[in-house]
Design goal:
Layout: E1 6-9, H1 11-24, E2 29-33, H2 35-40, H3 43-50, E3 56-59, H4 62-70, E4 77-79, H5 86-94, E5 98-101, H6 104-112, E6 123-130, E7 138-139, H7 143-151, E8 156-162, H8 174-190, E9 194-195, H9 199-204, E10 212-213, E11 239-251, E12 256-257, E13 263-264, E14 269-274, E15 291-294, E16 297-302, E17 310-313, E18 326-330, H10 336-342, H11 347-354
Parallel strand pairs: 2-3, 2-10, 3-4, 4-5, 5-6, 6-7, 6-8, 8-9
Antiparallel strand pairs: 1-11, 11-14, 11-18, 12-13, 14-17, 15-16, 15-18, 16-17
The structure holds pyridoxal-5'-phosphate.
Length: about 350
């Protein structure tokens, strides 16, 4: 159900950000990552929009792929977690999905499974190796033998290699070059098409751009790098979170505002109440001082974020706010990453939360 706060999606910005991906990844094929409802931007709408401009989509799990196929999306779909069971593996054949294999049991199952004749007999698979993140992936030492087993199987069309960085958001981190080195060795030994770079690596590690790149957050216009803003990277925000001023109150010096009576001022203040809160995906832990744009003026958040409301100090506005004024929580002027930082989290999380209802 729609509430007062509204999420708008700017598809022109998405198109622009895709052109930035291209600029940084020369002729690599593009896998647009649209897991978690396309980072809150609406998975189907984003898939429809990008369908003819990218080479594949990546989602986290079979359920997401099943949904896209049921809506007629025919583009290649990579399943980043692969299948979790034999039934899900059968769905990979039925729906022509490309599972990532990161565990030996998945490889074993893939080599044994009997699929009915009516289904496609073979599929493309991605072999994920662990080059240092230690989350998903078979060990580097097992890569060659697992690759051999997969490529000898009749049920597999082709095998691609992939891995994922643990610290690409910090370009100076020593583990990045170690992971790249480990990946290059395996890639050379197997001599197959591969994919390594997420957004952060696309923007900061040209050598990590292989045959396929996997941009997520940069498509949505937030920064993947801890030391650069989205604007500095030439990215445009795709999601805008807006709401309205619903009340204006005058407080005397010393009177506290909101739950916990956390914030008070030693001067008389004007407080605007905005109809947005953590129920809309605005982060509850946003600190006093988080920027909120009211009618082209940045004002500081004050007091605790409630489920449906926030309070903002508008005492210093040059052109005082009135009831009904529109408010930008993040978008063209306030970067989602700024709000995230003020709440000790990352833009990814805020986008996912705000767009859950899309
Ligand atoms: C989510 C994900 C990506 C995209 O990461 P961004 O930082 O959003 O670009 C790429 N690869 C894998 C394996 C992922 O899980």
């Amino acid at each position: 159900m729609r509430r007062s706060a509204s999420v708008e999606i700017d598809f022109n910005a998405l198109k622009h950000n895709l052109s930035v991906v291209r600029q940084f990844s020369s002729n690599a094929k593009i896998v647009a990552v649209i897991k978690a409802n396309a980072y809150g931007h609406g998975m189907l709408a984003v898939a429809d929009y990008l369908m003819n401009s990218v080479d594949a989509f990546a989602v986290a799990c079979i359920q997401e792929a099943e949904y896209l196929r049921s809506k007629g999306v025919q583009v290649p779909l990579i399943i980043l977690q692969g299948f979790h069971s034999e039934d899900q593996l059968k769905q990979c054949f039925e729906l022509n999905l490309e599972p990532v294999c990161h565990q030996h049991w998945q490889v074993d199952l893939l080599l044994q499974v009997k699929v009915s004749k009516s289904l496609s007999k073979s599929l493309k698979a991605w072999l994920k190796v662990d080059t240092g993140m230690h989350r998903l992936g078979i060990s580097a030492g097992d890569a060659a033998s697992v690759f051999q087993r997969l490529s000898n199987s009749n049920s597999i069309d082709s095998v691609y290699l992939m891995s994922h960085f643990a610290n690409a958001d910090q370009p100076e981190h020593a583990s990045n070059s170690q992971q790249l080195l480990a990946f290059n060795e395996i890639e050379k030994a197997l001599n197959i098409e591969s994919s390594l770079a997420n957004s952060a690596a696309i923007l900061s590690m040209p050598d990590a751009v292989k045959n396929w790149v996997r941009p997520g957050i940069m498509l949505y216009g937030a920064s993947p790098l801890s030391n650069k803003t989205a604007a500095e990277l030439g990215l445009k925000p795709v999601m805008k979170l807006h709401s309205k001023v619903i009340a204006i109150n005058s407080l005397n010096a010393g009177e506290a505002v909101g739950y916990g009576s956390l914030w008070s001022s030693d001067r008389d203040t004007q407080i605007a109440v905005i109809s947005v809160g953590y129920g809309d995906g605005y982060p509850r832990h946003a600190q006093a001082g988080t920027p909120v744009l009211i009618k082209n003026e940045i004002c500081p958040l004050v007091g605790r974020v409630s489920m449906d409301m926030i309070t903002v100090d508008i005492t210093d506005m040059r052109n005082p706010a009135v009831i009904g004024d529109s408010v930008e929580l993040w978008g063209d002027t306030v970067a989602v990453d700024e709000v995230a930082k003020s709440a000790s989290t990352i833009g990814y999380e805020l986008l996912c939360n705000a767009g859950k209802g899309l």
